[in-house]
Amino acid sequence: MTPNRKTCLVLALLTLTFVALAYAFVLTPARQGFIVLSPLVPKDVLAIVPGTIRVSAAQLVKSGGDVSGLDCYACHHQDSPPEVKYDANHEIVLPKEHADLIISMRNCVECHPPNDPVKLEYDDSGNVKMPKAHEGLLAMGHGRSTRNNNNYCFNCHDRDQLNQLHTPDGDKLKFDQATQLCAGCHGTTYRDWMAGAHGRTSGHWDRTAGPFERQECTSCHDPHAPRFTGLIPMPGPHLLHPVPARKPQPESSDE
């Protein structure tokens, strides 16, 4: 057999092998917890949403959307600052009347599929009934401890001008300038964000090819509870030789 003919035969066998593997991969059902990207999977099963986790005030303003919910003085009186309320653990609780605002600033389809829209229920006073699984959405949680009044509303909101924010240095900011406010306490993360190493950037990496846009901090982080909840990890790969489970170590005694 000539070398050229042998090479062609080997390449043909390899091609047939890869075609067979690809066909088997498409037909083989996925293990629980895995998603197989194949033509046999309906498109609506993946429910991939290109938007950010939240809709920030800056995004609403830039899009020309309805920002009436950001007008604090539609309900509050400027000569009567709101009272900050605490729960039994002395943690600030966001008013129930703000539930509509909080829900509207979130992208519910990140968890709820578009083909099963969320239906809000209201009580006799017109307030949203928060589902039991979502009661934490009304809880304040900005900061890992209560030192320096981390959870105090007026650390960020201006008490005398509710439609404004203020930095630790006293600079006045609008709601759509919240990222500058975040930079006042999270300088290292802000520098990473400016360099493109944190957050999400859309548009052109090549600046000569077109514009780019960095998403605001509040497009992903809820300013009242910025920490992300834990995610259930996907199952690990199948092992030909499973690693034996470790035996629990006995607790050390103080004796």
Structure in words:
It is a single chain. This protein is mainly α and 255 residues long. It is 22% helix and 4% strand. The chain has helices at residues 3-27, 43-46, 57-63, 99-104, 178-183, 187-195; strands at 165-166, 172-173, 201-203, 212-214. A hairpin with an 8-residue loop joins strand 3 (201-203) and strand 4 (212-214). The termini are far apart.
Summary, kept brief:
This protein has 255 residues and is mainly alpha-helical. It is built from six helices and four strands.
Low-confidence stretches: 30-47
**Structural class, from secondary structure content?**
mainly alpha
Mean pLDDT: 77
Give the strand order, joined by hyphens, for the main sheet.
Answer: 1-2
The helix/strand order is: HHHHEEHHEE
- Largest sheet at a glance? 2 strands, antiparallel
Number of helical segments with 4 or more residues: 6
Portion of residues in beta strands equals under 5%
* General shape: elongated
* Helical amount: 10-25%
Rg of Cα set: 26 Å
Number of strands: 4
State the end-to-end distance: 79 Å
Describe the SSE topology.
Elements: H1 3-27, H2 43-46, H3 57-63, H4 99-104, E1 165-166, E2 172-173, H5 178-183, H6 187-195, E3 201-203, E4 212-214
Antiparallel strand pairs: 1-2, 3-4
